[in-house]
Give the backbone structure.
Amino acid sequence: QVQLVESGGGLVQPGGSLRLSCAASGFTFTSSGMHWVRQAPGKGLEWVTLISHDGITKFYADSVKGRFTISRDNSKNTLYLQLNSLRVEDTAVYYCARELGSREALDIWGQGTMVTVSS
Amino acid sequence: EVVMTQSPATLAVSPGESATLSCRASQSVGSRLAWYQQKPGHPPRLLIYGTSTRATGIPARFSGSGSGTEFTLTISSLQSEDFAVYFCQQYEIWYTFGQGTKLEIK
């Protein structure tokens, strides 16, 4: 079935790094733009970044620009998010999501992976 | 940045009644507005996109309306499974979400 499964979250100290993965199945990953959206504990949703279907175009929220890098491997149907220079305020559940069409709403979401930044 | 403001923050409604949730954008987003439902411990679920188009599998009791800066999600004949948090999102100018409306049982 149509599915996104994130992994790679965990506890990291401030200034540390993590790499999140999102494995896609059940749809044509190579045709889909993909996003990461995060949600701090008990808070709302914050868009983080997007990558075009071919991996060429990438955009980032100002809050993560220069620290996070989105990428994809279409041969493996997998999306990635490299998180560097992590801050306490990056603590959140990170969701990967598929866009319905180019620059459209997000119609498929993973279950999320928790990133905790704490000393 | 387009700021999305949802009201009310919490809405208490009895099952079987209707609920009306509001979302205001700080500048026009045309019709590029979506609504999501989120239950505790679960990811958001797309309900409505393009202001008024129901996503696949979404019941007809969910309807969206509005344009520009004012939008509404209406849920008629509330079922027990509808009590959740609802977020609006604009995708006209990047992507921003509202802070959410919690729909609870009265």
User: Anything to note?
Assistant: Chain B touches chain A through 21 residues (CB under 8 Å).
